[in-house]
Specification:
The complex is a heterodimer. By secondary structure, chain A is an alpha+beta fold. In chain A, 30% of the residues lie in helices and 17% in strands. Chain A has one domain: Alpha-Beta Plaits (2-Layer Sandwich). Chain A has a three-stranded mixed sheet. In chain A, strands 2-3 form a two-stranded antiparallel sheet. In chain A, strands 4-5 form a two-stranded antiparallel ribbon. The chains are: A alpha+beta, B mainly alpha. At the A-B interface, helix 1, strand 2, helix 3, helix 4 and strand 6 of A face helix 4, helix 6, helix 9 and helix 12 of B. The structure holds iron/sulfur cluster (SF4) (2 copies).
């Protein structure tokens, strides 16, 4: 009897200790990693950000085209989308435009949920995706409140891809070519503020291409920069979610999330 | 014996061949043959994954209660439940495997962990949960008395302490199972971008539905395996638990729908409209409410008020299982169909159609294949696991009247 009791106790204690050990080990390992990756040089002099002036946007989609060209993105890969909306009644209807890119959130929900840590927040403010690590679970896509992420289904505009589509392009300081072995295929992609251009001291392609000069890009850590000055009077999409976007807006836009969906069904519109 | 072995060889060879073909297509074409897009990124396969995982957890919890409270009369049902829960878990995990973009990288989730990701924790829990079930199944099938002639010494210790080991592992397994499926619910609940999911009751609904699906599955097995013996008393109790859970589960679902509707918040109301009146209304009214609630309750009432003819309870358990599938389906794709920013869908796809999701034929073919393979493996295992085989074909129950079903 005595013997049996001891065995039970041992079994229970060993399994409990084992579990606790595993959990503690994992927590220590991960918290070490987090520190290493995001806080190390948090005094880095550059924190990129963008302010988009909606009153200057004319909805020409030059940014969309420039982005597609720069990043060689396949169909339905939406790094940059200009959302159009009609407001007001005849005789005073108005077209409103909202360019949407990745907000490079300071508290990015996409980074939190990624099961393999493939998506990370860099010290310069950019949220990156490691194409070699991403398993393509699309959890980040469901978690992003801005629909900023797209899955690369492996489709091309042309089959086989034409000479432009198969050129080499750069993302996150790496070079890629669109073919079967392309790492981004079957993974999730999104706007990265053209990080490869920033490394060369250039502006993101959409900012350079913008006809109405609606986009201002720069270092938010520098209080004298134009973007910092504009940022002080800007607003963010879905501010209430606490994602702390680095892409901000000025100008008027009524947020009517899901309203069209509601109206369409209720009023058959 | 030899004949049956060669039939199994044939069946498994055919399965493996089809699996190769399907995998070849899947690896070559990625997810392009699915109807998923950048708005609705999770669809049929994720629904099935959640569904089978729920059944697994429900069955395991039933087994756990039987084991812990030493309910001798239910022991055979418990054994079948434990084994079924393992197969159901495997089927569910297979669905999530084919759903990920990079099939070949699935194992990397165990080396590239992310402590803030619910999914990362979940995947580890699934493995632990699988081992718990496997060990329990193994322990349960050990002989209770040790024969020195044919067993090695180490087994002696296991045989001697079999009962207490099973009990302690079950104690560990129950909270684990709750974490497994509560966690699956939390996977969705933590997503603040999707207003309908982002509620604390979501994991609770997942757990209740899971328990209900477990009980339904047990009732289903009683009807399906005609030789499985059960006592009238235990069936009566099971039917009561089934009905109470059915009401409680639907009460929680109703609560979730009501609170979202009452809120008047656009995203939430948009979801309600989508399933009540919009693109997913058929799946809601016919599947979830028609089959899952009305037909299930009706059949149960017939069972209850007629002279408790088992057939009706059995049918009721089947309609309930179908209804729970629809709950999963209606809670996943429609939530993703609600536009994140007004006009985003239209400007991404230049059409209003894009936020509707209906699974493609290929998605269904893969799903059927996984389910059929799971069923075949299930039947194969029955004859090879002594206690399950005994439970289903031989053993008698002491006490209460014994009745062979239908
Ligand atoms: S906008 Fe979306 S993808 Fe970009 S950082 Fe924020 S949550 Fe992540
Ligand atoms: S799709 Fe890739 S980046 Fe997104 S959560 Fe999954 S593994 Fe992470």
């Amino acid at each position: 009897m005595e013997d049996k009791k001891l065995t039970r106790k041992k079994l229970l204690i060993t399994s409990l200790l084992g579990t606790l050990g595993l959990v503690a080990g994992e927590l220590i390992r991960s918290s070490n990693n987090i520190e290493e990756e995001s806080d190390k040089d948090d005094d880095s002099s550059v924190k990129y950000g963008m302010v988009i002036d909606l009153d200057r946007c004319i909805g020409c989609n030059a940014c969309t085209i420039a982005c597609k060209q720069e990043n060689n993105t396949p169909p339905d890969m939406n790094y940059n989308v200009v959302i159009e909306r009609e407001e007001g009644e005849f005789p005073h209807p108005k077209k409103k435009f909202l360019p949407r890119i990745c907000m490079q959130c300071d508290k990015p929900p996409c980074v939190k949920v990624c099961p393999v840590g493939a998506t990370k927040k860099l010290n310069n403010g950019i949220v990156t995706i490691d194409y070699e690590k991403c398993i393509g679970c699309r959890y980040c896509m469901t978690a992003c409140p801005y629909g900023a992420r797209s899955f690369d289904f492996g489709e091309n505009y042309n089959t086989p891809p034409n000479s432009f589509e198969s050129t080499t392009y750069a993302e996150y300081d790496q070079f890629y070519k669109r073919d079967k072995t392309m790492p981004a295929l079957n993974g999730v992609r999104k706007c990265h503020y053209c990080s490869h251009r920033l490394a060369e001291g250039k502006l993101p392609a959409c900012v350079t291409a913008c006809l109405g000069k609606a986009r201002t890009f720069g270092n938010l850590n520098d209080p004298e920069s134009e973007v910092s000055k504009l940022a002080s009077k800007s607003w963010s999409l879905k501010d209430n979610l606490g994602t702390k976007p680095r892409t901000m807006y000025i100008g008027e836009w009524k947020e009517e999330r899901g309203k069209r969906c509601v109206n369409q069904i209720v009023y058959g519109g | 014996m030899r004949k049956s072995n060669s039939i199994w060889w044939l069946v498994f060879s055919i399965l493996v061949l089809i699996a190769f073909l399907l995998m070849y297509i899947r690896i070559n074409q990625g997810l392009s043959f699915t109807n998923l897009n950048n708005l609705v990124g999770w669809g049929l396969w994720v629904t099935f994954y959640v569904y089978f995982l729920g059944i697994s957890v429900g069955l395991f919890l039933s087994y756990g209660l039987i084991e812990i409270f030493n309910l001798e009369k239910y022991r055979d049902l418990g054994r079948v439940a434990l084994y079924s829960s393992m197969v159901s878990l495997l089927v569910g995990l297979f669905f999530i495997l084919i759903d990920i973009g990079h099939l070949g990288r699935f194992w990397t989730v165990f080396i590239n962990r992310n402590v803030t990701s619910v999914l990362s924790w979940e995947l580890h829990l699934y493995v632990l949960y699988f081992f718990v079930i496997a060990v329990l199944l193994f322990m349960d099938n050990l002989p209770s008395s040790w024969k020195p002639t044919n067993e090695p010494k180490r087994i002696k210790w296991l045989c001697k302490n079999r009962k207490s080991i099973i009990k302690y592992i079950t104690y560990f397994g129950i909270p684990l199972a709750i974490a497994v499926h509560g966690g699956t619910g939390a996977l969705f609940a933590v997503v603040k971008a999707r207003a309908f999911w982002n509620s604390a009751i979501f994991p609770v609904i997942f757990l209740t539905s899971a328990t209900l699906s477990g009980i339904s599955a047990i009732i289903f097995f009683i009807g399906f395996f005609k030789k499985l013996k059960y006592s009238i008393g235990s069936l009566r109790n099971l039917s009561r638990i089934f009905f109470i859970l059915l009401i409680f589960d639907n009460f929680l679902v109703l609560l979730q729908l009501f609170i979202n509707y009452y809120s008047d918040i656009n995203d939430r109301v948009a979801f309600i409209n989508l399933i009540f009146l919009g693109d997913y209304s058929k799946s809601f009214w016919i599947g979830q409410i028609g089959i899952g609630v009305i037909l299930t309750v009706l059949l149960f009432c017939i069972y209850f008020y007629s002279d408790q003819k088992f057939l009706y309870l059995w049918l009721s358990s089947i309609t309930c299982l179908i209804g729970i599938w629809f709950i999963r389906m209606n809670f996943i794709a429609p939530t993703l169909s609600v536009p994140l920013i007004d006009g985003l869908a239209e400007n991404m796809y230049r059409s209003n159609e894009s936020f509707k999701y209906t699974p493609s034929i290929m998605e269904w073919i893969y799903s059927y294949f996984i389910i059929i393979s799971g069923t075949i493996i299930y039947i194969f295992g029955i004859n090879r696991i002594p206690n399950v085989r005994d439970a289903l074909f031989r053993r008698k129950i002491k006490g209460d009247d014994i009745e062979q079903n239908i």
